[in-house]
Amino acid sequence: MRTRTIASLALTYALLGLLMNSVGTVILQSIAQFGISKPMGSTLEACKDLSVVAASFLLVAAVPAFGYRRSLIAVLAAMAAACLLASFATGFAAMQALFVATGLAFGVTKIATYSAIGLVARDPADHASITGLIEGVFMGGVLAGAWIFGWFIDAGDWLRVYWLLAAVCALAAILWLGVRLDESMVPVDREGASVTAGWKAMLALAALPATAAVLAALFLYVLVEQGVGTWLPTFNREILHLPAAMSVQMSSLFVASLALGRLASGILLRRIDWLPVLLACLAALALLVVAALPLAEGVQPRAGIGWASAPAAAWLFPLIGFFLAPIYPTVCSVALSALPQQRHAAMIGLIVIFSALGGTIGSFLVGLLFQTLPGTTAFYLLLLPIALVALALPFVRRRVAGAAA
Fold first, then answer.
1. Could you tell me the pTM of the whole model?
2. CATH among 1.25.40.10, 2.60.40.1220, 1.20.1250.20, 1.20.970.10 for 2-179+193-404
């Protein structure tokens, strides 16, 4: 039953990850189909991320009270309906509405999933391993989404992808009906599961120096990951001059690298202390950015370009995902493992809020830079938050260790 529960959590989280991270593809297609500008396209990030923030503020106490399992079933049913409606979109406003719904659903899913990990994990090392596994499967869902959207783009009617996604959401909701999740150990005051109670719990945690250190590191990390992930299809299309469908599919290399890196970290962190691993990853990441981006400069359009003839930068730059991958789940796991179970939902609410803000700012900033600066400059500037994450991690280590002591 434990394995089935972990698998169900991973698959649900991956499905919501597919929907959340389709934003780069939807921006690219919306620019072509609805005639919007790049800054207008970046509002999709705000639609989903600010909705995640709203869900965290409003539902952080309600989700444990309603039940993690029942919350996930409700989310999947709601997203099945939202995807079905999105398939009939005739304007960009429909895409904005879809990502508002997706953000709300993801906020609930993240609270429920990360809290449930604490129910099934045997110890801190097991917690880190399960978190890495679930985040790895999450990125697998994002990877699958890039290919699925690419196939429908090639077929000439990309909105029909939402018929398929609606069916998968409905099927996943049905599958959860056969899974048990023991939530008896969660101390919940069901009558006190109010918005105010959730705010108070989050504010009490946010006042701790250890929490501030964790949230700063996560904010900067997500700024980098979402900035790259959202605009990589556009980078491939406009800087490397790849065809539209191939631009989306080629960006899946970044997602595949993230998935592989998170799965690998789940194994590695059972044997090696997390701080030197993450610092080594950040150093390798910076070196790869500096090595890969010069290869994208001066690329000229070519007829009949394919996978074998794609520019070297299209293959090399997405590999930064492998070194980015371990940072987010590891920092989250370190923070949650240092807290008692009854404070997990509040901590996850804070994590979701600051991750969403980092994603929104990162996407908007990179989109604005792409609009105003030449070539690869926008991605070069991401070296600054990467350096700040490296400076923040030792501080996280000291603060979390002090809070747990």
1. 0.74
2. 1.20.1250.20
